[in-house]
Design brief:
Elements: H1 2-5, H2 12-62, E1 71-76, E2 82-91, E3 97-107, E4 111-121
Antiparallel strand pairs: 1-2, 2-3, 3-4
Length: about 120
Amino acid sequence: MKSLMKSKGFTLIEMLVALVILSFALLALAGLMVTTTRNNSFGGRITEAATFAQDKLEEFRAISWGNVSSGNDNKTGSHNLNYQRNWNVVTGPGGNLKTITISINWIDRNPHTIQLVSVVNKTD
């Protein structure tokens, strides 16, 4: 009888408790992976939108001062996501500065907007 009491190993109940704890940990990690993937995707879309805004600002720097005016267009990004790009140009006092506000709008799961504001100086 003493040899049975000294047997080594795990009981069935200990194994079941360990499996339940492991199951909860794996479920929590699975939920974390979904959240991480969504946030990574959203970060990529924000980067893409900021790049479209910066591209438009660079276009304004490459054209003549008189041709900088308000407008809008649509851009298609990666994964066929559509971005609406709007820009508003306001001439400042004295006529030597133009304030350019570029807004990028897109809808993935929710509507999103970012804005880039810059001031361009007239060079003669």
